[in-house]
Design brief:
The chain contains 17 helices and no strands. The protein has about 425 residues and is an all-alpha fold. It has one domain: Up-down Bundle (Amino acid/polyamine transporter I), CATH 1.20.1740.
Amino acid sequence: MTATGKRALGFWALLALVIGNMIGSGIYLLPATLAPLGWNQAIGWIITLGGALCLAVIFAALSARIPRAGGPYAYADAAFGPLAGYVAAWSYWVMTWVGNGAIAIAVVSNLSLIFPVIGTVAGLPAVLAVGFVWLLTLVNLAGVRAAGRVQAITTVLKILPLIGLIMLALWFALSGAPHAPDPGVPLTTGNIAAAAGLTFWGFLGLESATVPADKVQDPARNVPRATMIGVVFTGLIYLGISLAFAFYMPVGEAASSPAPVADFLGKTFGSGIAQVVALFAAISAFGALNGWILVQGEMPWAMARGGVFPAWFAKESARGIPVRGHIVSSLLLSGMALLNAQKGMGKLFEFIGSVSIAAGLVAYLLSALAALKLVRNVKTGSAALIAAAFTLWAEWGLGLEAMGYGAVLIAAGLALYPFVSSAKSSAIAADPAE
């Protein structure tokens, strides 16, 4: 298939997918959530970056060895068989459509700073979030080329305020500006683990390039490159933001701020910057939602092609788009958003986000274990051991409530497995079009 056909994602579009899926809503909100943890947050970011880099190493190695669509599903299936592949795919799929609900809410939350009426009408944020979901679902149904263009544009726009904040902090450092007071929060294992659990939200999506591998030009080369470069670039952005807040914004101000990035920039450029940053934050979340909707449609398709999901999901449109996976995934996340419409935007984001991470970490753990079995070299093996330990530690850091919800969702998937598994169909492989 040529670049004008099914394989429409080149290196730059793929890199935009990886960076865009990681840099979404979290970095605009996390400085306030992490502020009470003091310097534990900086250590948490460093540890999480290390864990993310280890995960990037194993995904790069696995994608080069097994350039198949499905990402975590493909690797767990190859290493441990259909049931393990199903568990990895189910947990990852749940993470995508559940997490997309949180990202859609973040789009609306930022827009509400520009249009305050949004927050005054009960249920309106959830309805608008669902509207954005279906808008971007239609973009993805138009083809990966259209989705890739949206991703490239939003990725460039979303990082501009973040780079601006880091440059401002560097200017403070070079000009000898006074540091914020030390918050005096003790450095403890529990506090660092709590920070790591929260900061991992910012790295969800590091494996995004591995999921639509069948739609990538030269996947054996481009998927590993986009994954590694994307994680390093994103990690440096996150670490720079964390240090900027730690050195130049008092903990009390950061913790009480509904828009910490805007407030940081506003101290120098005036309060009018808040709405500008809110717009960029909305664009950031919108771009992440676009990328994750691309991913959420691919997982049920890959599962069905592998024989562990109903064959109905394996059908593609004439453009090679898994239409049925997109429609069902978007219906599920729309239902979750609407059923929880009575929650405030902040509570809704926190609830959906924590459940998403708790479920998705299972897929990362299985991918790390798959790398130990399938890729036999010291570098990848060491990275896989560290990544496996990190995912378990991050899960613990989320707390019992999040782990409980995640366990229920995984158990639901296991209960469904005997009913949804299907035999591999050579007819599907021979005729993938509708």
